[in-house]
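Worked example 3 (structure in, sequence out).
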């Protein structure tokens, strides 16, 4: 009898990691008033309600107001698609929010051309080196754009009052290949999966039309293994009913082959997930 039969793939990956030394990397930017927002949208606001001693004891909480697509965030497929069964922020199945990560670095190309659009050849070149992108995986394109974070003109390649932006994104042929691979999510470290000057957003429409979510403004991936090899990504999406997206906390997990990083938290989390998986198999 196969004891792993019936356990989702993402849990099998986590089970296999139990007992191994793990590295956890945060791939998210923070939420604050310095975040470069797409023009004409709500700036991030945090207003303090209480921050001090109340009846002799400490209490602190705030009100926050922000545009859904702020900082490192998820675009739910409902952002650019409307059909029966389209996923909203709250209805994306949890198994689609955890998966093997592929990181395609194209920083050299975007350094030469801010308006660079990812091609199908870029993807197949990656696959020749790292293997075919797995069905159910998550692919993120790394242009090294986090170096511009909190610099509006650096991120957008334009002044705040300009109407045309200059940053790299996906070409439609690349979007078609990713959809054909059966990926669950497509990410990028720029403000949009479509390049800055786009007026018709073909990558958004093509991918969302196939219920594939996006991750935008992803943080630095410099600490990850080359190509994202061996990395599992956890997408901590806000569960907003009818939401077209929302800020996310992206956590990458992989084996610590160097053996020099404290990993107690990751190992403990793996044991917890293993226990949960076994219980699910027993009762299900």
């Amino acid at each position: 009898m196969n004891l792993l039969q019936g356990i989702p793939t993402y849990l099998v990956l986590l089970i296999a990691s139990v007992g191994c030394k793990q590295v956890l990397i945060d791939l998210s930017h923070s939420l604050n008033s310095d975040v470069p927002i797409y023009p004409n949208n709500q700036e991030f606001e945090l207003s303090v309600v209480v921050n001090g001693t109340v009846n002799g004891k400490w209490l602190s909480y705030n009100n926050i107001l922000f545009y859904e697509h702020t900082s490192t965030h998820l675009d739910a497929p409902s952002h650019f698609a409307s059909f029966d069964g389209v996923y909203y922020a709250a209805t994306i199945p949890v198994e689609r929010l955890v998966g093997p990560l592929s990181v395609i670095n194209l920083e050299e190309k975007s350094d030469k051309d801010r308006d660079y659009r990812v091609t199908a050849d870029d993807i197949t070149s990656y696959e020749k080196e790292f293997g075919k992108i797995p069905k159910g995986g998550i692919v993120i394109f790394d242009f090294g754009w986090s170096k511009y974070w909190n610099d509006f003109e650096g991120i957008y390649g334009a002044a705040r009052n300009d109407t045309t932006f200059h940053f790299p994104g996906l070409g439609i042929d690349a979007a078609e290949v990713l959809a054909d691979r059966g990926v669950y999510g497509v990410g990028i470290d720029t403000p949009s999966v479509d390049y800055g000057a786009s007026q018709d957003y073909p990558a958004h429409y093509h991918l969302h039309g196939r219920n594939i979510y996006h991750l935008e403004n992803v943080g630095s991936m410099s600490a990850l293994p080359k190509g994202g090899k061996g990395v599992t990504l956890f997408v901590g999406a806000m569960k907003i009913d009818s939401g077209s997206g929302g800020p996310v906390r992206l956590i990458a997990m992989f084996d610590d082959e160097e053996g020099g990083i404290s990993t107690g938290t990751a190992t403990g989390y793996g044991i917890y997930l293993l226990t949960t998986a076994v219980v699910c198999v027993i009762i299900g």
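Notes: The chain is about 25% helix and 25% strand. Residues 11 and 276 are 9 Å apart (CA to CA).
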